[in-house]
Amino acid sequence: MRYKEAGVDIDYADFIKKRIKKFIPEISKGRFAGIYKINKDNYLAATVDGVGTKLILAKEIGYLEGIGIDIVNHCVNDLLCVGARPLFFLDYIASSNLKEIEIYEIIKGIDKALKEHDAFLIGGETAEMPDIYNKSMFDLVGCMIGILKKENIIPKKLKEGDLIYGISSSGLHTNGFSLVRKIIKDKNISLETKIGNKKLKNLLLIPHRSYFKILYPLIIKNRIKACVHITGGGFEGNIKRVLDEGLSAEIDFKDFEVPEIFKFIQEMGEVPEEEMFKVFNMGIGMIIIFSKKDEDYIKKYFKKLNEPVYFLGVIKKFYGKKVKIYYRR
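Structure tokens predicted for Phosphoribosylformylglycinamidine cyclo-ligase (329 residues):
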């Protein structure tokens, strides 16, 4: 089964993004967040995103606080990919019937995640539109503003020989849920199914991880050249966003141990390997790229934090494909 069969066409979404790119200022093109210069040395960064159809599972299972955490951390990570720290956040919640949503639980999750980043919820919008949304359905969107200094803007210019490392995800984060839900429905899989010692429903609703606290100190010390948030479009679609002309990224997953939840999804849905890496984060939620000379420093930094990092590949001269991925054995 492929994502397109679940109603999501990543290739067409990329086509649309390319068409509208002409309306975006040059400094913001291709970035995970837009950048706006406010004075000589300081910039604002802005990002907006949603939680997708993870909302449907969260409502069905009864854990809406988690999607509040999801939307904040997703936005924090996108800001991080340009070198920004978060300042404030606004939410948009729309539904066919607001009475059927535990809005308080969503906002509680948003507030919890914002406090982790010393950021604030300064407003938002709630809309009731029964002619737009199906019965009992709703949507959650978040907009986050951050600040950064000119010297800390990333991605910086990459070069041949730069190293590519990955940092673990907490789970699916907020991508691929339309495909997951279709597999669950078509294969009649119970959400109570055990994977290891955990239930499927609990694994699916683990909140999106924030990488701010572990990566921002490296960014402001200019130890990291690029961060890549593995979201919609997977590895190839996101890594190519930070590559300069004349460069390619070569990624090797042959020795990486993919978490069981992804193996379960692939097996149950008979999803091709390449499709899995295009749709899901496969256990790597953030990629960092840095100079070879900084490798010892960065490895010691993560060892001190007791945070595993995984060598995935190198930056090479362009050889016909922007991102070359060697999949698992």
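The chain has two domains: 31-152, 163-326.
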